[in-house]
Amino acid sequence: MANTSRYRPPYALTSTILNRLAEITEGLGRYSVLAEQHLTPRLRRENRIRTIQASLAIENNTLTLEQVTSLMDGKRVLGHPREIQEVHNAIAAYEALEQWDACSERDLLAAHAMLMRGLVEEVGCYRSGGVGIFRDKHCMHMAPPASRVPQLMVNLLSWLANGEEHPLLASCVFHYELEFIHPFADGNGRMGRLWQTLILRQWKPLLAFLPLETVIRERQEEYYRALALADAQAEATPFVEFMLQALSEVMHQVAVTDQVTDQVTDQVTDQVAALIQIIDQGELGSGALMKVLGLSHRPTFRENYLNPALNAALVEQTQPHAPRSPTQRYRLTDKGRRWLLRHRTA
After folding, report:
1. Is residue 37 very low, low, confident or very high in pLDDT (cuts 50, 70, 90)?
2. Last-in-domain residue among 261, 277, 297
3. Among 210, 240, 261, which residue terminates a domain?
4. Which is nearest to 244 in space by CA: 46, 7, 13, 33?
5. Which of 157, 220, 226, 320 is the most exposed, having the fewest neighbouring CB atoms within 10 Å of its CB?
6. Nearest to 337 by CA among 92, 35, 85, 69
7. Phi, psi torsion values for 204, nearest 5 degrees
8. What is the pLDDT of residues 227-261, one digit of tens each?
């Protein structure tokens, strides 16, 4: 049996990693002050919803923020039963974070059972067979044999419990190592993201509401490339660099968003709010929008509805380089979707 006390996942402390750690640590002080003032229960809930929706979207779940919000509220939504089950499971798992110890194998298995309940046969236990990761019919990664998984996980959890790495660094390394070992028959990606959040939460509780998964979702191809590059180099370094960049980015986004949330909400007029709610149903042209709004005077529509929404970056054109195109449509921006989510959860 391997000597778990000496096990250390392979990675290198590059200048990029050291700079990112310093950057995040410095930003964390500002984030903590702002969070204490602005991270209200409503915003914590909103960030949790964004986390769940993004983490599942990475796994090809098609439910929207609005649908996840409705499920969080106990409402029924139209959707594939499996996708709805995935959301219910994720809600339960993220709500249970404070009950678990990131270094506990028992808690890790319990979390998998909760996250994958009703989705796969092997829940709450390590896989019993071999597994590979395929993309476009190409094998991107062949995981270690199932017979090695229990010991590999004991080693990894022991390193996490006894190591002296900074929690920011440890959370990224653990995330990569779990993906490399691929200990479960299914759900390894969402488990890696969940457990990184747990590690960060145990260090700084406010980080439990940092929607890191939203940045991963936006940069999903880079996420997969970082995993593949780490595999090719046989060490976690490229993945750690990517994840620390994502952490820095989302911390800045949330700090700015939370600080101005109330101001933005106050600035949105009833007319703009009505426009946002209509565009949420799908991309529409100005004529269709006016019809739904019951308007016939185009200058009024542009002055009171469309232009304020465009200027506030809540709505954008589908053809920004051809603003007068007869096929021009309008859609919500990420900022517009966030406003709509806050409005619905207020």
Report:
1. low
2. 261
3. 261
4. 13
5. 320
6. 69
7. -135, 105
8. 999 999 999 999 999 999 999 888 877 665 544 44
